[in-house]
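Onboarding guide, step 5: your first structure request.
Type a short instruction followed by the sequence, for example:

Predict the 3D structure of this protein.
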Amino acid sequence: MKWSEFTATAPHMGTLATEAFTDEHLATLGTLRANGWPRVSPCEVYFVDGEMLLGMMPESAKALDLRRDPRITVVNGQEQRIPKRGDVKLYGTAREIMRDRQELRDRFADAQEAVINWRPTDPFHLFAVDILSASYISFGEGKRYLRWSAERGEEELPHPEG
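The system replies with C-alpha cells like these:
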C-alpha cells in the first residue's frame, strides 16, 4: 500500500510517522543481501505525490539488494536514546521508480534540493515504499504504542511500561 493509502487507513500512526521522517529526512533501512544476511544502511526519506521515496546512489549495495529482493524495513532516524518523535518501524516492499516516470523523479529531486540544497542527477535509484505493516512506540510523557496491518487496521495497544 502506497504512503497516502497507509496514512488514510492509519491516521494516527501515519501522522506520527510522517512527522518523524520529515523531522530528520533520515531513516535506517534494512535490506537483504544476496547471501541472505541483513544489510543496515542510512537513507534519506522524502514524501512526494503520496509516495514515501528513497533515493540511492547508482549501483549502491542497498539499491542492488532491493532490485533482487524488494523486502524492506524502514526505521526513522534516531539521535537520542529516547527519540523525540518516537520509534517508527515500517515493513514492506520497495518499488523502483524508473526513468519512464521522470516527472516524479524530478519532483523528488526538487524536494531533496529544497531540504539539503543538493540535487541528485541521473543516474540514481529511486524507490517508493509500499507498506505491509507498521509499529510506533514512544516513551516518557504521552507514551503510546500503536501497530497497523491491513488485516487488523490501526490498533492502540497497552504500553509495555504500563
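Each response can be followed by summary notes, for example: DSSP finds four helices and eight strands in the chain.
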